[in-house]
Specification:
By secondary structure, the protein is an alpha+beta fold. The chain is built from 6 helices and 13 strands. It has a single domain, classed as 4-Layer Sandwich (CNF1/YfiH-like putative cysteine hydrolases), CATH 3.60.140. Helices cover 24% and strands 26% of the residues. A 6-stranded mixed sheet has the order 4-5-8-7-9-12. The protein has a 5-stranded mixed sheet with strand order 1-2-13-6-3, covered by helices on one side. A hairpin with a 4-residue loop joins β7 and β8. It is globular. The mean pLDDT is 97.
Length: 242
C-alpha cells in the first residue's frame, strides 16, 4: 500500500503503490484519484486506508484540484465544505496537517523544512515543470520562514526518461527552459525526464537534501501509469510534520 516511506527530523514522506485498496478493474486496487471515473465510495475508502496506514487522520489530509499549472496556495486546514482550489502546489506551516499530491506518471514532489515547520506538496508534470510549479512551491515555503538549505525533498514514482517519448519539437521547447529534462527513450527517440528536471530546479534553488524514487510508473505493474493504460487510477504522495 505504501510503497515507500521515510522520516527526517520529524518530517514524514510517503508514496503509495496500487495495492491494498478496494477499487475494481481498471482502477485496482488503491486508486486515490477522485476524478478518473472510479466509484466515489471506493475512492473515499481507499483514502481512509492509505491515511491510516501512514498513521495520519484521513480528515486532516489536504488534496488539490490539479490542473498542470504553477499556482501554489498556503493552507492551514482541510478544505471542508469549501471548493478545492485549482492549484498544483499546497504549502503549510501547520504541524500534523498532511498534504497530498496525485499522480500517474507525473512527478510527485514532497518538501519539508523541519526546523521552520513548513511543508509542501507539488504536482510536476511536463507543463508544470516548464511553468515553474516547483520554484513556486519553494517560494511559498520561504515566505513562511523556510530556508532552502534546510529543505528536505523527495520525489516519487514517475515515468522515466527512457519511457517518456515526446515529439522532437516538444523536447526542444522543454529543454530550452529546463535543460536537464532532455532525454532519449531506450529505443532511441526524443524523450523527457521530468524527474531530472525537477531535481535540477531544486538544486538551482539551493535544495541539497534530495532523494528520487527509482520506480518508473510506465515500467512498474505495481504503479498506475496513464501513458501505459490511459484509463487507470492515481497514486498519492503525502508529506506532514510532527
Amino acid at each position: 500500500m505504501i510503497g515507500r516511506r521515510d522520516t527526517v527530523n520529524g518530517a514524514h514522506f510517503g508514496f503509495t503503490d496500487r495495492w491494498g485498496g478496494v477499487s475494481a478493474v481498471p482502477y485496482e486496487e488503491l486508486n486515490l484519484g477522485g476524478a478518473v471515473g472510479d466509484d466515489p465510495a471506493a475512492v473515499t475508502a481507499n483514502r481512509e486506508l492509505a491515511a491510516k496506514s501512514l498513521g495520519v487522520d484521513p480528515a486532516r489530509v489536504v488534496w488539490m484540484n490539479q490542473v498542470h499549472g504553477a499556482d501554489a496556495v498556503v493552507v492551514d486546514a482541510p478544505w471542508g465544505d469549501r471548493p478545492v482550489p485549482r492549484v498544483d502546489a499546497v504549502v503549510t506551516a501547520e504541524r500534523g496537517l498532511a498534504l497530498a499530491v496525485l499522480t500517474a506518471d507525473c512527478v510527485p514532489v514532497l518538501l519539508a523544512d523541519p526546523v521552520a515547520g513548513v511543508a509542501a506538496a507539488a504536482h510536476a508534470g511536463r507543463p508544470g515543470l516548464v511553468a515553474g510549479v516547483v520554484p513556486a512551491a519553494v517560494r511559498a515555503m520561504t515566505g513562511l520562514g523556510a530556508d532552502p538549505a534546510r529543505i528536505v525533498a523527495r520525489t516519487g514514482p514517475a515515468v522515466c526518461g527512457r519511457c517518456y517519448e515526446v515529439p522532437e519539437a516538444m523536447r526542444a521547447d522543454v529543454s530550452a527552459v529546463v535543460p536537464a529534462a532532455h532525454a532519449e527513450t531506450s529505443w532511441g527517440t526524443p524523450a523527457l525526464d521530468v524527474s531530472a528536471g525537477v531535481h535540477a530546479q531544486l538544486e538551482d534553488l539551493g535544495v541539497r537534501e534530495r532523494a528520487q524514487s527509482p520506480v518508473c510508473t510506465r515500467e512498474s505493474q505495481d504503479h498506475f501509469s496513464y501513458r501505459r493504460d490511459r484509463t487507470t487510477g492515481r497514486l498519492a504522495g503525502y508529506v506532514w510534520l510532527d
